């Protein structure tokens, strides 16, 4: 990722969940390079702090928070407005994946975790942020991170895929519901990426053989990267995408074709 931005997000303020690693870190870095201020929400404060310190000075603040907690969402909103004066964009990126295995063998706690971390934050961010934006009267934007596995589910990761399906459906429905308030919802659907999730996606360990199986399904022949996701999220957050709502943008190297 280039360290020189074009200023396309100059003056914008965002909350990025799961911003301490993986796709979230790529989004935070791209946003701040392009001029945005970001509150990095992550359960791991050290990770969030490390990413914040790598961004342009004063552009990012680490916030330890649980995306399944309404209290933490309210605190994140309050902190953002206090630090940066406003809020323009929310990126629901925080995510996990259960270890790939037969669907009937996935532990119930893993199933519950998929929906708690992927779906509940959409409900909570809507509950907390929408009234704030409606009161401000200037609109807003939510970007939700879904997955290409939503339209193209695969065996052994069905419960992960199903939770991401809920993300896409909620994105579309909310985009229609709040369009009258100029509050937009879009989603991005990455393929498997170069993140800490790779071992679980491969069934427990990151091996060349496992990667070959994944890459055989991706026409461009590589995994997605945090930079890929950050670039597309940046476009969606920019004024160039102001007419887009309810869109699910694939970042998948052709896997969904």
Account of the protein in words:
Belongs to the short-chain dehydrogenases/reductases (SDR) family. Helices cover 42% and strands 15% of the residues. It has 257 residues and is α/β, with parallel strands linked by helices. Helix 3 (70-84) packs across helix 5. The chain starts with 12 loop residues before the first strand and ends in a 6-residue tail after the last strand. The mean pLDDT is 95.
Gross morphology: globular
Strand residue percentage = 5-15%
Order of helices and strands: EHEHEHEHHEHEHHHE
The separation of the N and C termini measures 27 Å
CATH architecture classification: 3-Layer(aba) Sandwich
- Unreliably modeled segments: none
Structural class: alpha/beta
Per DSSP E runs of 2 or more residues, the count of β-strands stands at 7
**And the CATH topology?**
Rossmann fold
- The CATH first-level class comes to Alpha Beta
Q: State Rg.
A: 17 Å
CATH superfamily: NAD(P)-binding Rossmann-like Domain
Outline the biggest β-sheet.
7 strands, parallel
**Number of individual domains:** 1
**Assembly of the depicted chains:** single chain
Number of helices: 9
Q: Helical residue percent?
A: 40-55%
Strand order of the largest sheet: 3-2-1-4-5-6-7
| Average pLDDT, all residues | 95
InterPro entries: NAD(P)-bd_dom_sf, SDR_fam
Keywords: Oxidoreductase
Pfam families: adh_short_C2
Family: Belongs to the short-chain dehydrogenases/reductases (SDR) family.
């Amino acid at each position: 990722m280039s360290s020189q931005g074009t200023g396309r997000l100059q003056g914008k303020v965002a909350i990025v969940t799961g911003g301490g690693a993986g796709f979230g870190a790529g989004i935070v870095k791209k946003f701040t390079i392009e001029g945005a201020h970001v509150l990095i929400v992550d359960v791991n404060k050290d990770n969030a702090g490390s990413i914040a310190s790598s961004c342009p000075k004063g552009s990012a603040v680490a916030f330890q928070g649980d995306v399944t907690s309404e209290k933490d969402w309210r605190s994140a909103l309050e902190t953002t407005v206090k630090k940066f004066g406003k809020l323009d964009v929310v990126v629901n990126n925080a995510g996990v994946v259960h270890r790939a295995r037969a669907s009937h063998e996935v532990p119930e706690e893993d199933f519950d975790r998929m929906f708690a971390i992927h779906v509940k934050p959409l409900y909570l961010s809507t509950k907390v942020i929408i009234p704030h934006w409606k009161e401000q009267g200037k609109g807003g934007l939510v970007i939700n991170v879904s997955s290409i596995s939503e339209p193209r589910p695969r065996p052994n990761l069905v419960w992960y895929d199903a939770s991401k399906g809920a993300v896409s459906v909620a994105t579309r429905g909310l985009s229609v519901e709040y369009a009258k308030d100029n509050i937009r919802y879009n989603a991005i659907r990455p393929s498997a990426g170069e993140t800490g999730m790779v071992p679980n996606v491969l069934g427990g360990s990151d091996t060349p053989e496992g990667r070959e199986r994944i890459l055989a399904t991706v026409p461009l022949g590589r995994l997605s990267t945090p930079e890929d996701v950050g670039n597309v999220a940046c476009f969606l957050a920019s004024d160039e995408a102001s007419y887009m709502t309810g869109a699910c943008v694939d970042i998948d190297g052709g896997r969904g074709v």
